[in-house]
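Q: Got a minute? One more chain.
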Amino acid sequence: QGPVCTNLGLKPGQRLTVKGKIAPNAKSFVMNLGKDATLLGLHFNPRFDAHGDVNTIVCNSKKVEEWGAEHREAVFPFQKGGTAEITFGVNQNDVTVHLPGHQFTFPNRLNLTVFDYFDTQGDFTLQSLSWE
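A: Always. Here it is, folded:
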């Protein structure tokens, strides 16, 4: 578990940029964005080799203990031992995930009007966090 941010206050039109280092022997890492630890609007989980997935990004949402349907992205711009820069753009109805050379959107299933919570877990070391 890496740092946990609360009271971020991210609203539609704002972006959160995360930079960090991926462990050389990484299996997977997670970034959660939501209202709090129980209401996650976006669970972003790049998997090098975890839960039966290889080089796949799995996204989901979580309402208390109830996970939604998994969404998989086939593009995988991450490398073990490399650095990563990921930007999450908050929109009215979804979150746009900007990756190196690729972007996709994930629906705001919980209809969150503000994203206050962010955390990282797994084989990722957070180096910087910025928002605008």
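A: The chain has a mean pLDDT of 96.
Q: Perfect, thanks.
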